[in-house]
Amino acid sequence: MDSEHLLRNRKLPGYEDYKMSKQLNLSKGGANHQKPNGKEDVLTTAQGAPVSDNQNWLSAGPRGPQLLEDHIAREKIFHFDHERIPERVVHARGYGVHGEFELKDPIPEFTHAAVLAGEKGKKTPIFARFSTVAGNKGSPDLARDVRGFAVKFYTDQGNWDLVGNNIPVFFIQDAIKFPDLIHSVKPAPDRGFPQAQSAHDNFWDFVSLTPESMHMVMWQMSDRAIPRSFRFMEGFGVHTFRLINADGKASFVKFHWKPKQGLQSVIWNEALKINGADPDFHRRDMWDAIDAGDYPQWDLGVQIFDEEFAENFEFDVLDATKLIPEEQVPVRIIGTMTLNNNVDNFFAETEQVAFCTQNIVPGMDFTEDPLLQGRNFSYLDTQLKRLGGPNFTHIPINAPKCPVHNFQQDGHMAMSNPKGRANYEPNSWGEGTDEDRGPRACPDTGFTSHEASVGSPKIRERSETFADHYSQARQFYISQTEIEQIHMANALTFELSKVVRMDIRKRMIGHLLHIDEGLAQDVCDGIGLAELPDKVPAAREPITDLAESPALSILKNGPDSFKGRKLGIYIAEGADADVVKALKSAAESVGAMVAIVAPHVAGAKLSDGEFMEANEKIDGGPSVVFDAVAIIMGEKAARNYADDKPSQDFVSDAFAHAKFIGYVPPSKQIFAAIGLEEKMDDGFFDLSAKQGAEKFIEACAALRFWDRQSVKQD
Ligand code: HDD
Description:
The chain has 714 residues and is of the alpha/beta class. It is 28% helix and 15% strand. 41% of the residues are buried. The structure holds CIS-heme D hydroxychlorin gamma-spirolactone (HDD). It comes from Aurantiacibacter atlanticus.
């Protein structure tokens, strides 16, 4: 056998090879597999033996006891009994999608990683998984929580996992605190609740005793923690990483994902209702968008800086509770990720995907960030538990798409097994023998660590440079619009109102006093405290003159079109057909999705006698699941539904959530029934007016009519 042939045989199969072999195994029909109706495949056991009856357990007579002998039933039950694997200890609730990354502005001056430094236009397949942190696998999507934003790049030089969040900072500075942080936010161990929320004593007890978390807490209490959809949120690599170029020169880098769709969040009261109306709101949104060919895209940006910048920056770049304002180090866009393919099988792909922060490729390196270093241990370790053995990299979704050659062997579920005799190194096979000697390390192209001297005494001590816990928390707060600040005060008030212990509530306000006195006062009033508590002693006095950073606000960075958003049109008998059709086409022409809601799911007869089918019955399609709504019905129908609670809620919620509302004059009867007629403002659009539909859709680009909300809620 020639050596090329041997090498080919050694090649461990990647995803494509696996898919092919799967197709072969599952090839239709077969000698013993005659198709029952000439159509479907024959049902078989896991061993491939055809099954004659899948409904009745073998028994002694039709009413007799079931026989243990039934190997087919036993195999079926056995497999079912073992269907579950442990859910992720955090980020259990998630949704994965395939896509590709296109390199648009290569950066060979900073890195020799081919994925970032290759040819302009180079495409790399990716798999992205978005998640919440605290809730279990079945928890609702709209929890107030951080969202995971993990991307696996199947690069030519191995898998690169960028395991980030939709928030650029983290709660803690050192990984040793992670179990405590997560224990505190997860359900209390004695009672097993509350699920998927931070609004409870344990969480606020922990963070109020951990001042370093204050910056992240500000983000978590902002609208960032209730995104409208995964499609409308940013992603961040959080840590400072290193890039290494071909000459071995190192630079620091922070990674950013910028959604081309723009940023958008919902309002808390809306989030609570979405959780009831559609707990799968985020995953459904992603599935529907991709299914409809509206592929979401994010630009990948880098903030690159050198040792000198790091030395002079106000904070330590190794501290994951700090960010570098984009106004200080601009984000350079280097490529675009497009998500264009839904999974074929949720378990095989979304559930089994295993991200590891340690997965980097030549041309990159870690920094001494103590949170990152701890993560590098944790992710590999957790896969062993979750996926059951060291061969989780053989699972197609985790297998690199480049060749894999090494001497690792055996273990549970080994799927990619090298051939040949040499399973150790050094060896002298191949020298004058037919045997394949196996792979060898390559100093030129292999991964090399950045050279750094580490001659320090062993200590357990946090660096003094990590001690400022409030300055950037304050910077975040002052960078928000007034409406966003109001939402933050409301969120803190809501959460602390769920905290039973008064000392914890006060301690938390004692931190807010370092961040912004107005905010502290608002929350103090919100929870009904008679007077402000004392400030919590600060490890270091905050810097109060940090400049505002507009990049930190969602509303300052919103979209400029209604594209990708969803309009709910509530129709009923006699709805003006011209208006409905004009509105539908105006929305679709800007790339928005339209859902028709009606009193009955069958639909409703329009004014021209045509019957329009509905996507939702009004009870199942409340206005909270849409970005804007219109109510179009005939005179008589509007009179009928004026007293109908779901119809009233449709309008009153849309109003309360500052949504743009389209209507025709008969619909005003519903507005009148809930006392809204006299409150109709510039966020309402008469669709029967000239160019009514176009004007309405144009206004919807702003997403919300915030003027309606700028009064503080009690
Ligand atoms: Fe983590 C999962 C993001 C700190 C330990 N983490 C996980 C996921 C994301 C993040 C997005 C889900 C990946 C997926 O979709 O499968 N984690 C972060 C970020 C952090 C962070 C942005 C701070 C910057 N994590 C962190 C620390 C530790 C962990 C400090 C432990 C010391 N994280 C884990 C884990 C998980 C995980 C236990 C659970 C499931 C998994 O890894 O695969 O290992």
